[in-house]
């Protein structure tokens, strides 16, 4: 069955953690935090198609995951929320391919009590906003929006992943946050979603690749094929991701 693990606990000595059994194996997939819902569904589909294979998923900020893989964390497949984080792996990333796109959106508490209606409203006095760290794809995209609009957000905190930003808002620790459209949709009625024309000009492309030297390289390739194929693309599209 699909296993969700904390990425920070995966640091080890190898790139993969196959069980060594003749009739079962573990496929390690490291994926951007914004892919949690979709990749859990894709992993379940993969396990149905591959008897005896357990997919172990770890989610975190893409830059964080790339650093961990470089340090030896087990990973057969890496799916990033931007091409910059994938590029950090250099030759470790085998033939990266774009499989989805995503754009930013603002989330607020239910009902949008402070009347946040634009990106500029995040800079208003009395509005506490939270964003991703600049090192992470969601933060880098927010930085571009700030540059394009000339609006600087004095965030109360900068988080390591987009899911952490969303949690701050849903927990009432911030009035608003900048996340991906897909995360806002997944949160449902826990948040109000606010768009801004400036977001349309900043699109994140999501690449996926197998990791060079991974023990389960062939399985990794098959997982990538599933993500790029009809069923994987349907799952991503239904969650609000754009086409590659």
TrEMBL record:
Keyword Signal: yes
Residues given in the record as molybdate binding sites: 34, 62, 162, 180
GO BP annotations, alphabetical order: molybdate ion transport
Classification via SUPFAM superfamilies: Periplasmic binding protein-like II (SSF53850)
Keywords in alphabetical order: Metal-binding, Molybdenum, Signal
InterPro entries listed in its UniProt record: ModA, ModA/WtpA
Coiled-coil zones: none
GO molecular function per UniProt: metal ion binding; molybdate ion binding
Family: Belongs to the bacterial solute-binding protein ModA family.
Name of the protein described by the UniProt record: Molybdate ABC transporter substrate-binding protein
Organism, scientific name: Gordonia namibiensis NBRC 108229
Gene name of the record: modA
């Amino acid at each position: 069955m699909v296993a969700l693990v904390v990425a920070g606990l995966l640091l080890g000595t190898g790139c993969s953690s196959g069980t060594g059994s003749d009739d079962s194996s573990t496929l390690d997939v490291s994926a951007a935090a914004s892919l949690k819902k979709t990749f859990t569904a894709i992993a379940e589909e993969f396990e149905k198609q591959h008897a005896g294979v357990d997919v172990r998923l770890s989610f975190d900020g893409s830059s964080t995951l790339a650093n961990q893989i470089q340090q030896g964390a087990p990973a057969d497949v890496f799916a990033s929320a931007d091409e910059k984080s994938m590029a950090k792996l250099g030759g470790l990333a085998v033939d990266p391919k774009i499989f989805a796109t995503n754009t930013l959106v603002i989330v607020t508490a239910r009902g949008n009590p402070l009347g946040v209606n634009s990106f500029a409203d995040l800079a208003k006095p009395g509005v506490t906003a939270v964003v991703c760290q600049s090192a992470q794809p969601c933060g880098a995209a927010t930085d571009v929006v700030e540059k394009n609009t000339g609006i600087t957000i004095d965030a109360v905190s900068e988080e390591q992943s987009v899911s952490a930003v969303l949690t701050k808002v849903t927990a009432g620790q911030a009035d608003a946050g900048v996340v991906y459209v897909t995360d806002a949709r997944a949160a449902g009625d826990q948040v109000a979603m606010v768009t801004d024309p400036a977001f349309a000009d900043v699109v994140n492309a999501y690449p996926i690749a197998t990791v060079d030297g991974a023990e389960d390289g062939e399985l990794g390739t098959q997982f990538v094929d599933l993500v790029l194929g009809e069923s994987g693309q349907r799952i991503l599209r239904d969650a609000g991701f754009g086409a590659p």
